Amino acid sequence: MAELKRLPTLPGVHLKDEIAKITHRLRDLGLSRQVDKAVWDKVELARHAQRPYTLDYIHHMFPGFIELSGDRCFADDAAIVAGLAAYMGRTIMVIGHQKGRDLAARTRRNFGMPRPEGYRKAQRLMILADKFGIPVFTMIDTPGAFPGVAAEERGQAGAISAALLCMARLDVPTVAVIIGEGGSGGALALGLADRVLMLENSIYSVISPESCAAILWKDSSEAHLAAQTLRLTSSQVADLGAIDAVLPEPRGGAHRDHAGAAHIVKEVLEDNLRELEAIRPLDRKRERFAKFRRMGVWKENGLTLF
Amino acid sequence: MAELKRLPTLPGVHLKDEIAKITHRLRDLGLSRQVDKAVWDKVELARHAQRPYTLDYIHHMFPGFIELSGDRCFADDAAIVAGLAAYMGRTIMVIGHQKGRDLAARTRRNFGMPRPEGYRKAQRLMILADKFGIPVFTMIDTPGAFPGVAAEERGQAGAISAALLCMARLDVPTVAVIIGEGGSGGALALGLADRVLMLENSIYSVISPESCAAILWKDSSEAHLAAQTLRLTSSQVADLGAIDAVLPEPRGGAHRDHAGAAHIVKEVLEDNLRELEAIRPLDRKRERFAKFRRMGVWKENGLTLF
Amino acid sequence: MAQRVSVNISRRNGASGGAESCPQCKQLLSAVELRDNYSVCPNCGNHFRLSARERVAMLADSGTWNEIAAGLRSADPLQFFDLRPYSERLEEAEYDTGLGEAMIVGSCRIHKMDAVLMVMDFSFMGGSMGSVVGEKFWRACEAAIENRYPLVAVCASGGARMQEGILSLLQMAKTTCAVELLSEVPVPFISILTHPTTGGVLASFATLADVIIAEPGALLSFSGPRVIEQTIKESLPDNFGLAESNLNHGQIDMIVPRSQLKDRLVQILGMLEGGVACALEPLWEEEAGRPGRRGPLAGALGRIKAFANAPWRSLKR
Amino acid sequence: MAQRVSVNISRRNGASGGAESCPQCKQLLSAVELRDNYSVCPNCGNHFRLSARERVAMLADSGTWNEIAAGLRSADPLQFFDLRPYSERLEEAEYDTGLGEAMIVGSCRIHKMDAVLMVMDFSFMGGSMGSVVGEKFWRACEAAIENRYPLVAVCASGGARMQEGILSLLQMAKTTCAVELLSEVPVPFISILTHPTTGGVLASFATLADVIIAEPGALLSFSGPRVIEQTIKESLPDNFGLAESNLNHGQIDMIVPRSQLKDRLVQILGMLEGGVACALEPLWEEEAGRPGRRGPLAGALGRIKAFANAPWRSLKR
Ligand SMILES: [Zn+2]
Ligand SMILES: [Zn+2]
């Protein structure tokens, strides 16, 4: 078990191998359909209706969880669940996107697509956690922030950027786990953390495969082609240096064993928190900044840099 | 001029004389009508339609004023005006309630009654001022926070308390001037300042005389009786130790000479800021807390304390 | 859920020994039945108003209540009178309620956890906040900071106390400053909003707590329903200002039925006490000779390394 | 006011030497007429899109522009291809715009005030933010902090650059961290949102500025109008996402017509530089050998006492 817990991936380490592999990728669409299959399977697994959601993890990991509500401005957004939990001898603040499993719950949770109020609730509770030195643990699982007129008018963009800035500022340790669908800015808003981990069958993407296909091929049915080219599976994202580690799932996938998946996350969380708590707050913040500073690949005067 | 600028009133100093006077107050309603007159005149002056409003003071005091807008959540509330101004060699953040003079302006400004967005804008800009070490100057002139269903739903109470907490926290110097109607919590939300000053013909009250009369005598036409008993004129409020000083107005009242009134406020503001800037931020904050701690009169084990 | 609040001062309706009927569902309830059910109607869930003493008895462990500042009484700085002088109203309220003011404060233990508790009583002049409520709040905060106890405020108020004029308004500023002193430590602060909490109390310390709990059906609004009706010239929605509406609108953290209140309170206090910040307790003790954290999760203390120079105080903002 | 934004990459429409018709009011305008009026239609006020170079020429004092990180170019970490490879698209964009990326950054003087300026160009792949935009933003912030210059960001963006996959999403986190470093100093940061600023740029640094200015008619929304229409299955209000609507909804500080932009910018920068905090400049200079404030109001410095131990850094939050 212990060796499964964290498989750290240094940014860019495997990148050159990957690039070599990809260079050989067949540009013939007919053939690429085959390569698609494995990637698209991951997309479907990440969105699987039986996949454990934030509240499932909370159920298995934090029996005494106390939910806290509201942005203190406009509403309580049920697409983000947040609250305090006792965890291995300390308190943590748990915040995560929440989809619904049945129709009523899906509607209530808005399919896990937060409105600005959700991000403002998250921000408010992160500040509360910071005040009392309580580490923050986020779970990411959303198709994206809700695209609606009223949500835009109430400042969807500003709510996301404010949540990001809040996470950048926190003096407490922060751990984020992408448990299912890590969709776009609406996912990242909970993901500016000291440690960002992905479950094996989760995805993390700048845009949904469907939207990407609609833009590039004017045909959203090309979504699995888009999924392939976006490189959104956990191992692909890890290879790009965009996350800190991939977490294995129970045999057959997390959807077959919620308790097993929760057990893995619980152990990994403890290891990461223990490491982070040993670092002085200011140093931890510097390391956080340094990590995100490294994100990206570019060429400078002809030299490619990771 | 110089001696007019600040007439500091220590809390409670004149209180005993006042109490002696009031004890003789005639409880006979017929006679008290006469005493009313002077007080009610002040109420009418404070609400006078030609009395200078926040934007009038800004016009005369801060030619380069730059208005800033929005609470970043829901709306820009025109009942509170805020922005940056160059003032005697430094920048200040100016924030004030704004009534309207004609019907269109009154509607747009909601008669100077802010919704939660107004207080959130004020709070946002006070935090911005604090970040850059910019002193905050507020002007108070409102019948009160707007009493409406939607305003309540969006957290009128919480918006006011958050603005108060923000003012308590500020590391920068803060000066508040009640320029007209200081009505209830909606006024106080901009009034937790290092120095709280009142123009001679302004009023500051826990409740409007009309509402007070409606509650006590079930008859809002008894408003001038209520005004008298509430002790809401500048000199009465000063005698209760609730403000730091009363500012004289130009001959005949501020409504007859906007420029003159602005000139007085401008000079007094400079004197107060200069004093406050000479104090170290933490000490200034301690003095602010100590001042508001002293507010009130109570008996302890039979002894009356101010 | 709740009956509309009357801002008039009304006597408690559950104090007599005999039976009374629930104002919401009209069911006849015996005093014993009510008392055994936390003064909640077993039929419809209506939360009856509690006196401050009853609330203390319900939350504080038996025999641990230690009242602070009990000797404070309102003065009459304005020599205020309407149909009757303020001083007479005060005497009557004290006679009727057995309380010196609309709030009592004290230290106590709640399920063995030390805390400072303050409770407002609506029966004392509508739970209005004047100079004494403000001063008692301040002293409660001082006690909480001094002893490093968390603070719990049970609110019930019609707003500021008109009879003390502008001085009552300024209690909003005074209590806010006290809350800021709490957060500088930081001391956990939980408010419990009961029916009704309105006006200046809601717009100051009641909404500045770290966690805000409401009782079911409590009316929570800044302006009173009648004022709003007069302003907008139409009748209000049925759920106007109720705790349930406030929860939907993001203004409070949770609604907790009275029967679960004490347990929930201790759970939350324990949570707020048990952050990794407890690793820094030794610092505080050295600094000010204050006792360390005592939450049930303070065990983390032993497990986590202490940081000699951690700038933990920057946390407060 | 504004035409609907197309997220497709389109060539600038004001670059040719001849006349062109205003897309909003259809009036025929000569190139000279447009240029002399800040590329704003004199008839209807439509703000034509500017190239990054044109914007720099409009804001920076002549001859003061000093580009930073000009040698940065996008790599192709995903070997991304759709109908054409990403690398080809990049080459074409560079050829068409003469820019190495969708953002140029540099130091300059604005009405004699030193500043770091960054300008995005929508013509370069829709002003999309990939690794190079993020890195350039970071370096601009570093330069601003190093020299104690304020930062001005002129934004125009369709969002994240899909072709760099998750790495482009993470530029939101990267630029946010850079903004936090600015506020720790604090360095003033003003963003100018031009038509269109959407997606990941709007949801990161663009809305994190101390003061947010928009140009008239600019579309500012997180989700694009088409995405929203598809989701809600109805057409959008006419003013959806426009600067004017954003102002009403409290999301931006002001709308400034292009002709007044430079003056207004310098006024605000001067204001943000001129707080009483300048009294503490000597501290910073001693600390890090950084140059002091230079705002027009820095005269306050001489007049106000310096506080040797003022805990001014606590201001940042
Ligand atoms: Zn009942
Ligand atoms: Zn035109």
Count of folded domains of chain A? 1
Q: Find the structural class of chain C using helix and strand composition.
A: alpha/beta
How many strands in all of chain A?
10
CATH homologous superfamily (4th level) name of chain A: 2-enoyl-CoA Hydratase, Chain A, domain 1
How many DSSP-defined strands of chain C?
Answer: 11
Number of helices of chain A: 14
Query: At the third CATH level, what is the topology name of the largest domain in chain C?
Result: 2-enoyl-CoA Hydratase, Chain A, domain 1
Overall geometry of chain C comes to globular
Beta-strand fraction estimate of chain A? 15-25%
Helix count, DSSP H or I runs of 4 or more residues of chain C: 11
CATH class of chain A: Alpha Beta
Mean pLDDT of chain C: 84
Q: What gap, in angstroms, lies between the N and C termini of chain A?
A: 32 Å
Structure described in brief:
The complex is a heterotetramer, with two copies of chain A (306 residues) and two copies of chain C (317 residues). Chain A has 306 residues and is an alpha/beta fold.
Task: Describe it.
Chain A has helices at 2-5, 15-23, 29-46, 54-61, 103-109, 116-131, 149-153, 156-169, 184-188, 209-216, 223-230, 234-239, 258-277, 281-294; strands spanning 66-67, 80-87, 90-97, 136-142, 174-183, 195-199, 203-205, 245-247, 298-300, 303-305. With 306 residues, chain A is of the alpha/beta class. Chain A has a single domain, classed as 2-enoyl-CoA Hydratase, Chain A, domain 1, CATH 3.90.226. In chain A, strands 1, 2, 3, 4, 5, 6, 7 and 8 form an 8-stranded mixed β-sheet that branches. Chain A has a two-stranded antiparallel ribbon with strand order 9-10. In chain A, helix 3 packs across helix 11, helix 4 (54-61) crosses helix 13 and helix 6 (116-131) packs parallel to helix 8. The longest helix of chain A is centred in the last third of the chain and has 20 residues, at 258-277. Chain A starts with a helix and ends with a strand. Residues 1-33 of chain A have low confidence and may be disordered. Chain C has 317 residues and is of the alpha/beta class. Chain C folds into 3 domains: 18-48, no CATH class; 49-273, Alpha-Beta Complex (2-enoyl-CoA Hydratase, Chain A, domain 1); 277-313, no CATH class. Helix content of chain C is 34%, strand content 16%. Chain C has 11 helices and 11 strands. In chain C, the strands form 2 sheets. In chain C, strands 3, 5, 6, 7, 8, 9, 10 and 11 form an 8-stranded mixed β-sheet that branches. Chain C has a two-stranded antiparallel sheet with strand order 1-2. In chain C, helix 4 runs parallel beside helix 5. The radius of gyration of chain C is 20 Å and the shape is globular. Chain C starts with 19 loop residues before the first strand and ends in a 14-residue tail after the last helix. The structure holds zinc ion (2 copies). One zinc ion is lined by residues 22, 24-25, 27, 41, 43-44, 46 of chain C.
